[in-house]
Fold Spermidine/putrescine import ATP-binding protein PotA.
Amino acid sequence: MSVVDIKQVSKRYGQTLALNNVSMTIAQGEFFSLLGPSGGGKTSLLRSIAGFVEPDEGSIEIDGKPMLNVPINQRDLGMMFQNYALFPHMSIADNIGFGLSVRHRSKAEINQRIKELLSLVHLEGYGERRPRELSGGQQQRVALARALAPRPRVLLLDEPLGALDKKLRDEMQIELKKIQREVGVTTILVTHDQQEALTLSDRVAIINGGKVEQLGSPREVYERPHSQFVASFLGNANFFTGVVCGQADGMTQIRLPAGQVIHSSHGAGRSIGSRVTAAVRPEKLHAAGSNGPGQPCNRLSGRIAHEIYAGNSITYWVEIGAQQVSLTAQNNTAPALSMGAEAHLEWAPADTIVLD
């Protein structure tokens, strides 16, 4: 297990600034995710850690040792790619042991390590098969075992579950987290899948335009987004723009364009008359009369415009003046809302996040 220090790293590709003064520290044994849209800079950062590219500015250290100009094969890293990159002509055992054989480890040590890893990824008895004889999930586990074989200081995962279907991807997320906890290796994951980052990570860095928009635990970045980009990228959110019209009893009052006032237990210190944007997650909203929060302070009324049925949940879109607001309800015993019917939406002030 190792600590990775990234200090003021910048990287350009021609006129494109892929990384812009990025700094973060990834703790020993942590499962850390780099999350963001395509072209945001997350892959450039992973490739810089791996040594495929060198930063133009800044430094990357592993356990206090600078990685500048250190060759890839001397960084003691394990890597796993989206396409797995297994050798089709080799057996599963030989694929797993490949990294050890090129390091000239003894045959006895290689065989023992292969046995340990086949057990770890639940593929005992599969050592003599070829990759084509395995399912996508099994190949993914072989690729993980191969990356772990040399006992790397840091494990780098580049969209490792992207090629799997949703059901298998969900299953492998649980398996990957379990294995990482058992091995204890410092792990850095690149993904554009929000649910994957939230499920797997101890902490998440949301990267956009080469900059870190926000860094924190999954709960922190989801429940308390700092910006409209973070709120909209990490799940869904309703945005209300208005003017601060009061501060009292720890509450910020925001007057919306149509005259309604909503309350937030955040946003202290905002001056009266300042323009702000607040975010509310769809699952935090409740239709009046359903099992919502006790004594809600916020209430807006509108009409049901349409719905999206997703099996275990239903998302309703409610027209409130010129704005459409989404409400996500679990598909349980709560009464369904009718199209065109009037709806009164309620939510707690603590769930109204005033954005920076």
User: Anything to note?
Assistant: The longest strand covers residues 298-309.
